[in-house]
Amino acid sequence: MTLQSLLKITLVFTLMVILMGAYTRLSDAGLGCPDWPGCYGHLTVPDEAHELSKVEINFPEHTVEPEKAWLEMIHRYIAGTLGLLVLGILILCLRSQDTPKRLPIFIALLILFQAALGMWTVTMKLMPIVVMSHLIGGFTLFALLLLLYLRTGAFRIPGGDSKARALLPLALVALGVLVIQIMLGGWTSSNYAALACTQLPLCEGNWFDNLRFADAFSPFQGQHPSFEYGVLDYATRMTIHVSHRIWGLVTALTLLWLAFKLFSAQSQVMRSSAYLLVVLVLVQIGLGISNVVMHLPLGIAVSHNGGAALLLLNLVFINYALWRKA
User: Fold this and answer.
1) Which helix (H) or strand (E) holds 141?
2) C-beta of residue 164 within 8 angstroms of C-beta of residue 262
3) 159-183: per-residue pLDDT in tens?
4) Is 213 exposed, middle or buried, given 0-12, 13-18 or 19+ CB atoms closer than 10 A?
5) Comparing C-alpha atoms, which of 77, 73, 79 is closest to residue 45?
6) Which residue in 25, 141, 222, 276 is deepest, having the highest Cβ count within 10 Å?
7) How large is the angle between the packed helices 168-190 and 234-262, nearest 10 degrees?
8) Concatenated DSSP letters for 12-75?
9) How would DSSP label each residue in 284-325?
């Protein structure tokens, strides 16, 4: 198998891990297995009588919920497969004379750190800063794998476009704005603040006078037996939610302005990327509104995570094209 083919497969698996992680988190299955890497001391979810008897002895404070436990374990199985794929990429890159070396090494180290974050997510009982870091790590891995795919020469980008070259600063700003929005989305989800506001365009009631930014964005939330379902009060969660909405507007306007500027590029590749950017932004806006109006339906909420990941890939591609080829 060629490096480019392996990278394509790995990108698909990374998206699967991101989506499955979101599905697990939104299904309240993040603690479906109270230990790591197994589940109640087993490689699969225990269901036999003798296995359940051991669970009662070793985990007396827990009750096996098969549906939630299987969601968590399937997520771990896919993530484990992703780790093996990344190992394969590292080996192929180190064996070849014509491929980058530092980037695949960094990606391999990142996947190890992701595994540690996955363990801490369970052992620290869904502490929000750990959950959000795990989410951001997955998005970062997704972006770096695309960057490695592009740097191996698998996709040729026409160059010589002086108008497009001038848009590099705007593209970098757009990427930074999107990263902040993804982090805000992760913080909203990990603190169970997605339904803190159920009206549009911002929030119900006297929300402006109840903003608590210091409490909302403090990574330290005290000692708690578990952070499942959140530990913050309503005003603090509302502040997180409103911040995500307001910055979402900033993000949408910035990305649409970049797309508008790219429409004048000479390269068909850049214009196609601009059209895709517009479509993804509009879809994300629609999914975000649907989450509020329909009170966070599981399928739409997971799709919102997937849309953010695809937006990130699109902007990474645009920045790479402008930086290296335009």
Assistant:
1) helix 128-151
2) yes
3) 666 778 889 999 999 999 999 999 9
4) exposed
5) 73
6) 25
7) 160
8) HHHHHHHHHHHHHHHTT-TTSSSSSSSBTTBSS---SHHHHHHHHHH-TT----HHHHHHHHHH
9) HHHHHHHHHHTT--HHHHHHHHHHHHHHHHHHHHHHHHHHHT
Supply the pTM of this predicted model. 0.93
> In this structure, which long-range contacts are made by residues 48-51, counting pairs with CB atoms below 8 Å and at least 24 apart in sequence?
none
**Residue 78 · residue 20 · CB < 8 Å:** yes
Cα–Cα dist 203/196, whole Å? 8
Q: Which token pair is 158?
A: 């026409």
User: Which is catalytic among the residues 61, 72, 204, 228?
Assistant: 72
The model's confidence at residue 157, banded by pLDDT at 50, 70 and 90, is low
- What CA–CA distance (Å, rounded) separates 287 from 304? 6
pLDDT of 326 reads 47
Q: Does residue 72 have an active-site annotation? A: yes
**Residue 167 is encoded by which pair of tokens?**
């848009």
In sequence order, what are the residues at sequence separation of 6 or more whose Cβ sits closer than 8 angstroms to the Cβ of residue 318? Answer: 171, 258, 262, 270, 273, 277
Closest CA to 308 of 18, 102, 13: 18
What percent of the chain has a predicted confidence (pLDDT) above 70? 97
